[in-house]
Amino acid sequence: RSKNACVDALQYFSFQIETVMSGNPITDSALVLPPMPGGLIMQLANILGVNSPFKTLLVKKIMLMGALRKSLVHAAVAICYSMLADAAFANDYTDSYRSELMGCVDAILLDRTYIDSFIKQDICIQTVKLISVSSTSSLDTLLETFYNLEYESLMTYWEQAPSEGVRGALHDSNFLERVANQARGLTATNDQDVSSLSGKSKNVFTNGGMGCLFHEIKEATSTDLLPLLSSFRGGIAPNASNLEVICRAVLSWISSAALMDQKSATDSNLPDYNIIVMIELVSCCLRELDNDTSFAIVNRAVKAFESLQQGSSLTITQIQPDHAIVERLNGRGYGWNASRRAAIMTKNQGYSEALAWAVSHFQDDDFDSPLYFLQNESAPRRIEKSMVVENIKKLLVAMRASFRRPSTNHRPFLTDAKGDF
Predict the structure, then answer these.
(1) What are the pLDDT digits (tens) for 175-230?
(2) Is residue 172 assigned to a domain?
(3) Are 269 and 413 found together in one domain?
(4) Domain UBA: where (predicted)?
(5) Both 198 and 95 in a single domain?
(6) Are residues 102 and 64 in the same domain?
(7) What is the DSSP letter of 380?
(8) Are 215 and 243 in a shared domain?
(9) In this model, does residue 291 exceed pLDDT 80?
(10) How far is CA 33 from CA 23, 27, 72, in A?
(11) Which of 251, 214, 249, 235 is nearest to 172 (CA)?
């Protein structure tokens, strides 16, 4: 029963916390509290006039610690979630309140008899969202525990389902559909008339969902991507729309990567080899489509590339990430892009602040995506006309020309591109 109470508390109080944090109104159904450990004790506390947030917290703390001593860890977790929900509803609370709450959270996280790493991770995330971490002495324990839990979860995942890893996923029969779904997140942002960016001051994030796709391709293939599609050749026709999505997304990624000013971009530079791999991917996909469709896709990419080259420039964000913070985060296992993003989003306030931000945002879709931004021609500097940019432009033009005639197995533009790079 206590285990069921733990699951009920996770669902009920997590929903309440998310609702309060987002500013949405609480519905009547959300106020129906499931059966909770210590319910009778809380009723007695209310009868005795224990109605202040801090006194209620102390009563729940006594119940939580007692449950842990009696090895009723699931009941303790349920009580802990109710305490976090109370903190979400509280308009203001003192340092004493915060300290007592963090002590209870630490007690749950450090309990070695409770091995549900998913719930422990969720408690970490909810706590960081709620608590002003700058004044919390237990923050180091919280973040250290979260890091260990993250590592344990990853190792458990690989032990239980190694075939679901990167290489295994590439041989999934639904590979094209899955990749297309990833790509749609990017094309939804970039699938617009790029020339309309001129004269506008807003930034457009251009590399949303391609990181996962690229790493899967790089892990499982050489520069020749034809073997990747060979196993799907029999069922390509029903997936033509997916291939079109992939082609548009990859061509957009290629343009963004080629136009990046490699000398001063915020994120780690993408080597030319990465661009070549993506060119190989898009060429394979284009060859599976009819000529007219392929020509239209590449023609649009050429025009978009020219518009970007003439009317836009890539620049870094105004805030430069603190290198010391980035290195420490990377040493804790976070990627370089995620580490830079955490430092920038917290305005380089310090390592603890950046780590807290990383803990609360590690599930974001773009958490470890590169930080490339497009700006209009009023940007303080212009993009340097590098050989990479010119070669990519020539390659796209040659690719477009190749679809004016019947498709063949010969791909001269790919051979030429490798020589140029």
Answers:
(1) 444 444 444 443 333 333 333 323 222 222 233 334 444 444 444 433 344 444 44
(2) yes
(3) yes
(4) 322-368
(5) no
(6) yes
(7) S
(8) yes
(9) yes
(10) 20, 12, 20
(11) 235
The sheet carrying 204-205 orders its strands as 204-205, 373-376, 312-315
State how far the Cα of 297 lies from the Cα of 301, in Å rounded to an integer.
Answer: 6
391 has pLDDT over 70: no
Q: Which of 160, 192, 219 is the last residue in one of the domains?
A: 160
Query: Is residue 275 assigned to a domain?
Result: yes
Q: How far apart are CA 376 and CA 382, in angstroms?
A: 10
Kindly give, in sequence order, each residue whose CB lies less than 8 Å from that of residue 27, ignoring residues fewer than 6 positions away: none
How far, in Å, CA of 166 to CA of 418, rounded? 26
Q: Token pair of 277, please?
A: 């791999």
Residue 347: domain span: 323-361
Residues 120 and 14 reside in one and the same domain:
yes
| The total number of structural domains that make up the chain | 3
User: What DSSP assignment string belongs to 33-85?
Assistant: PPP-TTHHHHHHHHHTT--SHHHHHHHHHHHHHHHHHTT-HHHHHHHHHHHHH
- The lowest-confidence range among 7-11, 124-128, 354-358 is 7-11
**CA separation for the pair 418, 415 (Å, rounded):** 5
Both tokens of 109, joined, read 């996280």
Two tokens, residue 124: 């970490």
Q: What is the pTM of this model?
A: 0.35
Question: Which residue's structure tokens are 């890091």?
Answer: 147
What pLDDT, in 10s, does the model give residues 13-66? 666 666 666 666 655 554 455 566 676 777 777 777 777 888 888 888 998 998
Residue 283 and residue 403 in one domain: yes
Residue 13 contacts residue 85 (beta carbons within 8 Å): yes
Could you give the CA distance from residue 85 to residue 103 in angstroms, rounded to a whole number?
16
> Are both 240 and 136 inside the same structural domain?
no
Let me know if residue 367 belongs to a domain: no
Contact 195, 305 (CB under 8 A): no
Q: Calculate the average pLDDT of the chain.
A: 62
d(CA 142, CA 340): 22
Tell me which of 160, 184, 203 is where a domain ends: 160
Instruction: Judge whether 272 and 388 are in contact, CB under 8 Å.
Output: yes
Token digits of residue 389: 């940019």
